[in-house]
Amino acid sequence: MEKVNNGLLTDVTRVYDRACEATKIPRRSMERIIREGRNTGKEYGEPTFNDRKRSRPCTVTALDDFDKCVLRRIALRFYARQDLPTIAKIWEEARRDIDFKGCKESLRKLLHELGFYYGRVNSRKFLLERNDVAATRTKFLRIMKKVQENEDQPIIYLDETWLNQNYTVGKCWTTNDRKKAIGVNPPTGKGARLIILHAGSKEGFVQNAELIFKAVNDGDYHQQMNRFVFENWFKSQLLPNIPPSSVIVMDNASYHSVATDKPPTTADKKNTIKEWLIKKGADLTDDMQKCELLQLVKIHSARTEKEYVIDKLAREHGHRVVRLPLYHCQYNPIELIWGQVKNYVSQRNNFKMADLRPLMQEAIQKVTKENWANAIKHVKKLQMEDSEGDDYVEHLMESFVIELRTSDDDDDDD
């Protein structure tokens, strides 16, 4: 272009502008490419993104289940020390404890997702835990306390996890001389993904219950699993290999909780809704509209406890299913075991998909009976503390509300 123009289009001292003119890349993108090249120690920077079209990770959904549990406990700590929980205070502690990267609005959305809401206390907003979440936790702790009192009662913990092809350690010893060593340098991107489904108890992992398969795409691993995969594994690999009369602990994933008699919805035809209500013994009249029938469905659904396919299948084989309360993954010791397994893989991963499955199997074999016993012991201690702490926290909340009301009465200008 300059040859045709018989002169410079951009002054040679304006290096970035000349590069942008030649490549048609925006200035900010050009600066970012150069910065990536400097940080990686390469002679030429290569863009790791598509300008203006790259997908940005959502800070609200970027947290894993473990960090969400930690975030929940951060919020609850304010009750125990009689401190008024606010978004700003919780945000500061979350940044310190779990290196939370999101903004305060992202934290607000996460708290709603974790079962918290704002309740009015004499014109003051006070962060409370949802009653249904607290009720399911109390019910779970009461059930597990009775189960654990019988030391001969086998308890099986199951869960799914995932592992990316380029999974590696986050930190290691390195040097300031980037020409000699810059630490672990895995390939760009996360690579393909393996999904792992397994179960264990105080005796270790359940024999022959291991299921590892490659994900079809790179979306949320919960979307890779479905009820058919899980039910087939449950029937063919778990039930035949666990002791009689076992208690099976699992979370509330959608494929764990498929109802045997799902109530009709607005998408169903009127006759289908009528048949369901007649089966439930409801009093119907011929002139009832669909909206009235759906209202009856809502009433009868609330009266009857849901029955799930997995629960029925376990009961037919002499076992019992106990579900974790929402957002309480810390009550499942297999979460600690998965952390140990992933740590083993991260230190030995060579970023080849062909070697990832054998490495994962090797990591699972390295988990000992003692590791499982320690994880279960830790969870039991946590459950005992929470069982005693629920009433204590509730008492603190009530006394704190009384103090707030008293201070409001004493100072009308507050």
Description:
By secondary structure, the chain is α/β, with parallel strands linked by helices. Helices cover 48% and strands 11% of the residues. It has helices at residues 2-5, 15-23, 27-40, 65-80, 87-97, 104-113, 131-149, 221-224, 227-238, 270-279, 290-303, 309-316, 334-346, 353-366, 369-410; strands at 116-121, 124-129, 155-164, 193-201, 204-205, 211-214, 247-250, 320-323. Strands 3, 4, 5, 6, 7 and 8 form a six-stranded mixed sheet that branches. A two-stranded antiparallel sheet has the order 1-2. Helix 13 packs across helix 14 (353-366). The termini are far apart.
Topology-level CATH name of the domain at 152-172 and 189-371: Nucleotidyltransferase, domain 5
Secondary-structure class: alpha/beta
Question: What's the pLDDT, averaged over the residues?
Answer: 81
Report Rg.
28 Å
Show unreliable segments. Answer: 399-414
Order of helices and strands: HHHHHHEEHEEEEHHEHHHEHHH
Proportion of beta-strand residues: 5-15%
Q: What coarse outline follows from CA principal-axis ratios?
A: globular
Please report the distance between the alpha carbons of the first and last residues: 71 Å
Number of helices: 15
Bin the helical content: 40-55%
Characterize the biggest β-sheet. 6 strands, mixed
CATH architecture of the domain at 152-172 and 189-371: 2-Layer Sandwich
| Number of β-strand runs | 8
